[in-house]
Amino acid sequence: MSAEATNPEAHPEARPELRRRGRTRLDLRRLGRAALLGPTSRDRLPDAIGHVAEAHRAHHPDADLSLLRRAYLLAETSHRGQMRKSGEPYITHPLAVTLILAELGAETTTLTASLLHDTVEDTEVTLDQVRAEFGDEVCFIVDGVTKVEKIDYGAAAEPETFRKMLVATGNDVRVMSIKLADRLHNMRTLGVMRPEKQARIAKVTRDVLIPLAERLGVQALKTELEDLVFAILHPEEYESTRALIAAHAGERDPLPAIADSVRAVLRDAGIAAEVQVRPRHFVSVHRIARTRGELRGSDFGRILVLVGENADCYGVLGELHTCFTPVVSEFKDFIATPKFNLYQSLHTAVATPEGYVAEVIVRTRQMHRVAEAGVVALGNPYATATPDTATDPDEERVDPTRPGWLSRLLDWQQSAPDPDTFWSVLRAELAQDREITVFRADGGTLGLPAGASCIDAAYAQHGEAAHGCIGARVNGRLTALSTPLSDGDTVQLLLAQDASSGPAAEWLDHARTPAARIAISSWLESHPDRAMSTTSAARAPLSVVGARGGGGNAVADLPDATVRLAGCCTPVPPDAVAGFLVRGGAVTVHRIHCAAVAQMRAVGRTSVAVHWRATADCRVTLLAESFGRPHLLADLTEAIAREGVEVVSATVEPPVEQRVRHTYTLQLPDAAGLPALMRAMRDVPGVYDVRRA
Fold first, then answer.
1. Catalytic residues
2. What is the distance in angstroms between the CA of the first residue and the CA of the last residue of the chain?
3. What is the distance between the alpha carbons of residues 455 and 545, in angstroms, rounded to a whole number?
4. In terms of Cα–Cα distance, which of 672, 676, 647, 650 is closest to 663?
5. Residues of the chain predicted below pLDDT 70
6. 502 Cβ partners below 8 Å, 6+ apart?
7. Is this structure's pTM higher than 0.70?
8. Which residues contact 357 (CB under 8 A, 6 or more apart)?
9. C-alpha 625: how far from its chain's center?
10. Alpha-carbon gap, residue 592 to 600, rounded angstroms
11. Which of 19, 85, 117, 324 has the maximum number of C-beta atoms within 10 A of its C-beta?
């Protein structure tokens, strides 16, 4: 099934590319009436599922169709006499759902369960009968779909409905595949319902099912659902987009000529490739029109290039960028960095001599299958599962196709305090359209939504123990918990030793994942007094000042000038330094790479040459980050004294979330001893970081 058909009302079996393969249009009404006449002989497939079998064999030539035949006969017999609201025999619905999945390339077990997905709910057939006739795997999927369908779809029941759907999806992604195909067929036949019910179903489809289809990579279903929802919820914009596409149909389309040029370029380069013109679907055209204003002919579709191997994709890209003018800002490599929903392709855009800009997608044929059908194209993900894990509905099965976002949803949905919280957070989570991977200090990985902070990483790794998180190192550098993370960052999370530690209310401003937000909110609600105390005013810092001052062993090439070492960068020998004349005739010395150097030059401060004396002593300012505990200041001061270093001044800030910051200005007898001094300070129990100011 094409993911970019331009007519949302057209059934996939009616499209021209299928008719070219010799497939006639499937008339479900006729087949439904034929089904009522009774089953056919046992030595051949019933005519009603002939199209399903044909579509299935196109993807799986060696498939055993006997299971489908038996499933259809049971479904047809069980549903006989039942009618849909549209007046069609009910058997037409499971047939249509199964055909949608067969077109996507679903394996036989999924199609069998699809034919039976309403039997346990709507007929006298039991799960035990399904298990005895079709095996544990089919029974497991049918049971999962049934658990979803049994719930009332009233507005008040929607949160609980989708919570159960989420759990069913986590146990077997094929449950959601059937549910999405089921919703697509229902949306195609929604015209028999009242307008207000159409709108309610369309909104739920827009808010939850379309994002889930996107997350599972099933673009073929997602795009048609988008168009159907668009027609119901935005009829005026839908009609204007329809008129825009109709007007374009009567004009000359430049894309076929551009596709011919691409074919010629690749043929001359010796790259075997299939080049297609892919029309955009309604919602895509509408989005492009809102972004670009007036559309040109090449904006109504894209060029798709299919090749055999990954390396050929980059070969095609090189030829396109050599023979056409590339639009550099449009290039995206989703092969090297796949999207969170398994999608892989190269995206680029090229300008032709005639002035058209054509978007080009390059992928292998396997990538194309996954791009269209997502997890449906991966076959049976549980083929190697043990019988116990395949049949026990209470035990979660290991799913190699389950992406990180689904695992996160399954984790936090159990702790959502109420259905309304679950519903609002679910919609926010599904609205995230990109995922990043960060590395833990122990070598493991965490999958997080784009924009996630260190707070999200803490709760993803430590759960409720993250309440005591007091800081993090990102790529080796100490950073605030509110710091956003980027793809590929390495995160080391620092936890307080005090088990009673808790999060601050402002953490909610930086938490992006449902797990973090729910855990923080729950803790704050159960500790109202502690929540208030985290925002109380800070006490004044404790300062200890020694007797020495000045510029250490820095010397300025300016007679009688007072030299001061800058506190912002605390230079020490043998740092490269720069000096600037400031008010009062003093010379301030900065490290050459200090940000203040550029500022001094920008405001016109006079530069003064400075150098270090031959003596080895120096002055430096160090920051020590630690957990709060008794006698910490005394232990740090003792460690400094053991290294033979003099304390010029010391400032101790009051504890915040069990963290204490110490600032020391120290006079060292030898600059070479600085690394040993910093190691000695880090060895003090409770100190987790020491660095130069």
1. 121-122
2. 61
3. 36
4. 650
5. 1-47, 147-171, 379-434, 497-501, 529-552, 614-616, 656-658
6. 467, 468, 523, 524, 527, 530, 531, 534
7. no
8. 296, 298, 327, 349, 350, 351
9. 34
10. 12
11. 117
Within 13 A of 526's CA, how many CA atoms are on the CB side? 11
Rounded to whole angstroms, what are the CA distances from 236 to 241, 250, 427, 486? 9, 22, 26, 41
Question: What are the angstrom distances between the C-alpha of 351 and each of 153, 255, 368?
Answer: 49, 12, 24
Q: How many angstroms separate the CA atoms of 489 and 448, rounded?
A: 11
> 545 - beta bridge partners?
649
What is the residue whose two structure tokens read 């005519």?
Answer: 47
Cα angle 165-383-223, degrees, rounded to a multiple of 5? 45
The total of other beta-carbon atoms located within 10 Å of residue 178's CB is 30
Q: What is the DSSP string of 75-98?
A: HHHHHTT-B-TTSSBTTHHHHHHH
Q: What is the pLDDT of residues 452-506, one digit of tens each?
A: 899 989 888 888 888 888 778 888 777 778 889 988 888 988 877 665 667 888 8
- Residue where the block lists tokens 């889930």: 212
How far is it, in rounded angstroms, from Cα 124 to Cα 139?
A: 15
The 10s digit of each residue's pLDDT in 238-280 is 999 999 888 888 788 899 999 999 999 999 999 999 999 999 9
Find residue 347's DSSP bridge partners: 332, 361
DSSP 318-378: HHHHHHSEE-GGG-EETTTS--TTS---EEEEEE-TTS-EEEEEEEEHHHHHHHHHGGGGG
Hey, is 449 helix, strand or coil?
A: strand
Q: Which helix (H) or strand (E) holds 493?
A: strand 490-495
